Amino acid sequence: MSLNVETKQTTPYEGQKPGTSGLRKKVKVFTQPNYTENFVQCILEANGTALVGSTLVVGGDGRYYCKEAAELIIRICAGNGVAKLLVGQNGILSTPAVSSLIRHNKALGGIVLTASHNPGGPENDFGIKFNCENGGPAPDAFTNKIYQLSTTIKAYTLVPSLQIDISKVGVSNYDIGGKPFVVEVIDSVANYVRHMEEIFDFGKLHDFVSGQSNGKPLKMRIDSMNGVTGAYVREIFLNRLGATETSVVHTTPLPDFGGLHPDPNLTYAKDLVETVAKGDYDIGAAFDGDGDRNMIIGSKAFFVTPSDSLAVIAHYLDAIPYFQKNGVQGFARSMPTASAVDLVGKKLGKEVFEVPTGWKYFGNLMDAGRLCLCGEESFGTGSNHIREKDGIWAVLAWISVMQHTGKSIEDILKQHWSVYGRNYFTRYDYEECDLEPCNEMMATMEKNITAAEFVGKSFSSEGKTYKVKEADNFSYTDPVDKSLATKQGLRIVFDDGSRIVMRLSGTGSSGATVRLYIDSYEKQNVLGQASVMLKPLIDIALEISQLPKFTGRNAPTVIT
Ligand SMILES: O=P([O-])(O)O[C@H]1O[C@H](COP(=O)(O)O)[C@@H](O)[C@H](O)[C@H]1O
Ligand SMILES: [Mg+2]
């Protein structure tokens, strides 16, 4: 039986502008009449003529409204000439899994349903993001096109009568006005697990994790925070690598993440940090809702900053078979990320790139064969195996390094610092501030720090003096396609290389979140406490930005 396509009239919604990584809004916003329909129609139209006859991947982190949105997307895709959809069972796919599926199936792209690390549930956040055929988040030019379309949209098309049960794996064939349309509901984890098996030596890792190699099972606590990684974690760590059931927690993806805030940092992954601090563990790890972020801690909750995590993995790439097979190209980090990886790159004679915040900026460099490993201070680490950051990949990389060196996480770090020196790093987040005063703060600060007389100025606190070497609002020209991204964060660089960086988050769903990043390099004094070492610079940053005055906040919500 042939199903009919219907065209529905609609009117534009304001504010459908994708942020750092897709459109993230409250569930209540997405569930307004035609809100999701409008945005999905614009995503599809932004693909132009390539859409008709294409294959797309659809899935998300299992948060509230994911399943309904996935079913709606299937009907809208059917109405717009898409030939085939690969849909995660129950609408579930981690963000790295979507990226991998797009690449393996040579799909035109994928629609990822997630608000990442933002809380879920009817009162909280939902999100929709489009990834292109390289598997990575759509670049700025593409998301701008989506936004433009959203301001003028008049109609969307769908197949309202299309019934589909996405709780069962299998292939359904439809006839849409005489044209075939295929929906393949796939196992959410199988392809991703296969991909990890190609990258890492699962045999070696199994013997190390299960204790078969040295009689000592690796003591792990892997916390999925009720996000999407649960199913992947169980299959990889329990079934493939032989870890014990007690090594994994919160592995059932829940629509509201069981009330957890699935952001893997020292504040929101408190349960993990406290348990590992008290207990007898070799490694603790947590992920965000959609599985692309990771946090790594060692015994007694020894914290590995994401900037250091990237540098250590870069140093030990030969512990991972993938890099032996595919070679080692350059490294990259986002601008606010401390430059520890730069030192490894220099030693190995590799190119190192500094890009704006947002994984989409790594994609071109990877596609051009110039980049194989990158990371961000925002708990993102990944490689060119896909075009998203990858939380589980990062844990497998760390376990590979532990197996390779036979050392604890703390010793790996201390040895790294003794060779390269240490980049002390901290990030202060001021969440849910009022937007207006924050915009004013940023504008005032930009004006002050870009005035001619700012360079050369000295600032002192607690007996330490820092002299400004340069200051700007970071802009970036993509080395591959020469596209320009401006206003990517205020940055003050001092004579000794220390930096103050400030920007507004692009991943929130309302209000403003201010991020203040402080980083300072020490060649010798590598065993200090970051909070103590960076205190003078933090005070200077608060003075220059007048943050307490503008935001009314005397303390950050999250300190990393
Ligand atoms: O949210 P995710 O895990 O998709 O992560 C996204 O947001 C992070 C933080 O962005 P912001 O500082 O603007 O909040 C970015 O670093 C990352 O590249 C992007 O993919
Ligand atoms: Mg995420």
Automatic annotation (TrEMBL):
Per the record, which residues fall in region Disordered? 1-21
Gene3D superfamilies in alphabetical order:
Alpha-D-Glucose-1,6-Bisphosphate, subunit A, domain 3, Alpha-D-phosphohexomutase, C-terminal domain
What EC number(s) does the entry state?
5.4.2.2
- Catalytic activities: alpha-D-glucose 1-phosphate = alpha-D-glucose 6-phosphate
Stretches assigned to the Alpha-D-phosphohexomutase alpha/beta/alpha domain: 16-155, 191-297, 308-420
Q: Which domain of life is it from?
A: Eukaryota
CDD domains tied to this protein: PGM1 (cd03085)
Give the Polar residues compositional bias ranges.
1-13
InterPro entries in the record, alphabetically? A-D-PHexomutase_a/b/a-I (IPR005844), A-D-PHexomutase_a/b/a-I/II/III (IPR016055), A-D-PHexomutase_a/b/a-II (IPR005845), A-D-PHexomutase_a/b/a-III (IPR005846), A-D-PHexomutase_C_sf (IPR036900), A-D-PHexomutase_CS (IPR016066), Alpha-D-phosphohexomutase_SF (IPR005841), PGM (IPR045244)
Cofactor(s) this protein requires: Mg(2+)
Keywords per UniProt: Isomerase, Magnesium, Metal-binding, Phosphoprotein
Q: Which family does it belong to?
A: Belongs to the phosphohexose mutase family.
Any idea what this protein is called? phosphoglucomutase (alpha-D-glucose-1,6-bisphosphate-dependent)
Source species: Drosophila arizonae (Fruit fly)
